[in-house]
Amino acid sequence: MNNFQYHNPVRILFGKGQMAQLPKQIPAQAKVMLTYGGGSIFKNGVYDQVKAALSSYTVVEFGGIEANPTYETLMKGVEIARQEGIDFLLSVGGGSVLDGTKFMAAAIPFEGPDAWQIVANRAKFTKAIPIGAVLTLPATGSEMNYYAVISRQETQEKKGMGNPLVYPQFSILDPETTFSLPPRQIANGIADAFTHVMEQYMTYPVRAEMQDRMAEGVLLTLIDEGPKMLANPTDYDAAANIMWAATMALNGLLAAGVPTDWATHQIGHELTALHGIDHARTLAVVLPHLLEIKKETKREKLLQYGRRVWQLTGTDDELVAGAIQKTADFYESLGIPTKASAYAIPASTVTEVVQRFEARGMNFGERADITPQVVGEILELSLA
Amino acid sequence: MNNFQYHNPVRILFGKGQMAQLPKQIPAQAKVMLTYGGGSIFKNGVYDQVKAALSSYTVVEFGGIEANPTYETLMKGVEIARQEGIDFLLSVGGGSVLDGTKFMAAAIPFEGPDAWQIVANRAKFTKAIPIGAVLTLPATGSEMNYYAVISRQETQEKKGMGNPLVYPQFSILDPETTFSLPPRQIANGIADAFTHVMEQYMTYPVRAEMQDRMAEGVLLTLIDEGPKMLANPTDYDAAANIMWAATMALNGLLAAGVPTDWATHQIGHELTALHGIDHARTLAVVLPHLLEIKKETKREKLLQYGRRVWQLTGTDDELVAGAIQKTADFYESLGIPTKASAYAIPASTVTEVVQRFEARGMNFGERADITPQVVGEILELSLA
């Protein structure tokens, strides 16, 4: 087991009716900016619940944060927040709204000339506006971590940032808020959480049995409960398990003390940046093919995963092949294709993505062996 | 799944050499009281490491905190801390030292006339001295929760307290500090952690699949790695897995959103209070017999546990019997007897414990069906 530090102070308020706790979580004198996305919160009743809970506060609204939130949009919110003297940000929506809100929290008091540097060059910042979250879409895990992924339209970039200053102070997770989600968003959320676990688990063993067992537990929960939530979106317990599993998938516990990969995300981000493909779908396009290309270096973990998660038996080679096939099958069972052809990704994208990785001048993966050339091989296999 | 709140701000510093982080965790001007137990930290080198790390601090020492820490001992430390103006408590040792330190943290600034009321009547307190911990014995989980169990010699009582104010600010967990533990303490620690999981898991299903999978993961880790640590106490990875599993067993995650039992602990505490039996051993004396007596109300979970944790097959009745037998066998495999006769507990103890439960005027267990009479039945079975 590797050494680690773990510190996660996010307060989780989980379950039906937890919105009633909202006023206890925000300082009484706070001037609140309510951030949200494309307007689903008006249809599912969450906006009305939040406004009712915040009736005694001064609230400024900033909506229109898109999926894969952009620097261009968010900087408009930053300007308003500065003008209005906002001192608390309440994100209401899914991971994109929350990621965007985290960027805003850092950008509002940022003293440098160019807030994009927070993302592009991970510029240090020492202040952030406090954040709270009301989550309406289980997927990204952003509700219990300090990471965010931000896009820039102008340059077709999509990059991550992270800093403990942007931990949400609290996150309200009421599974009932997910009841009206369209099937595509439910499927994407399950696929996203599943891939988060795989990025932290499917590497090489360091005898971190406790972490492996937890990761396998999250995978098994997603595999067992995901189809139930898709089949019946108002199955409260299915929604609750998926919501809590997606949070556990990326709250730092699974990564503590183990090597992590994250190459699938790095490649997927480029596909979203270039073609606007849903984040979770880009992961499904990459991961099964990455596993095939790296099946020798990931062999021990593929065997363990095949046996424990998919209950496979057979020769070692059969287990490895079966484990990769089961992974692709799982995405497909959610209605998410795993071949690039299904998304009309052209062959020229391979060259373009490889060039972007070459420009970065670094390799990825738990062994730093995902070179630009390997990225090309993975995408070629997905196109085949 | 039940509603829950979860908030755990303890910073974990895990692994070899983490003691070097100690000075960064304690305010530079703090006047520190170093609390410890019977002196094992002088033999295993931890005392020297801590003193070296704290060379720039004013440090007052308070040793001699016993297993099952007593109010009588702890109040001596409280007096010294008040006289010395201590503003940080550093617990160095196992769960007993840390539990005692948590009581001291609350008692030092307590303004009521009788600090025992913090334990006896869960008297509210609004201030506590900040705590840090260096853990040398994996067992109780106290390093990542806000609970403590305190005994009073005068009245032969053993009772719990809990308050977020006594969360450790940080806990240093270096598995190498466990290398010199005697086998009895290693075995007790594994048994204690195992029972903590069972208290939160072996109840009735509420479709909290995520929590169940995590609980099963901790149990499997203890079952797989426990014997390795016992066989080879300097197996770093075995020690690391047991240490992290014991922390995960009682940091609040397993209990979030599910019913919990804790009757085994309540009965076990009385056996320690009356006969001075090691805490973990009292749990082994109680749990298998409690499961036998309550096997109908715990039937669904016993079946799940038998299948998933012990890989049992057969009829449902065979699974239930097998799951209970495997539980007893596990304690015995650690060298911990599960029958009261092995501890020379006399038959008169049954009457005495039943009377203590009658005096409390409340029932225990996840269904509040562990009446004083049922407590008697459990102990009779253990004596049989």
Explain what you see.
The structure is a homodimer of 384-residue chains. Chain A is α/β, with parallel strands linked by helices and 384 residues long. Chain A has 2 domains: 11-177, Rossmann fold (3-Layer(aba) Sandwich); 183-383, Dehydroquinate synthase-like - alpha domain (Dehydroquinate synthase-like, alpha domain, Up-down Bundle). Chain A contains 15 helices and 8 strands. Chain A has helices at 22-25, 40-43, 46-53, 71-84, 95-107, 117-120, 183-201, 209-231, 236-249, 263-275, 279-293, 299-308, 316-333, 348-360, 372-383; strands spanning 4-14, 31-35, 58-62, 88-93, 131-135, 147-152, 157-162, 170-173. In chain A, the strands form 2 sheets. Chain A has a 6-stranded parallel sheet with strand order 1-8-5-4-2-3, sandwiched between helices. A two-stranded antiparallel sheet of chain A has the order 6-7. In chain A, helix 7 runs parallel beside helix 11 and helix 14 runs antiparallel to helix 15 (372-383). The longest helix of chain A has 23 residues, at 209-231. Chain A is globular, with a radius of gyration of 20 Å. Chain A binds chain B through residues 1-18, 206-211, 213-214, 216-218, 220-221, 224-225, 236-237, 240-241, 244-245, 248, 256-257, and chain B through 1-18, 21, 206-211, 213-214, 216-218, 220-221, 224-225, 236-237, 240-241, 244-245, 248, 256-257. Strand 1 of chain A pairs antiparallel with strand 1 (4-14) of chain B. Chains A, B: It holds the Pfam family Fe-ADH.
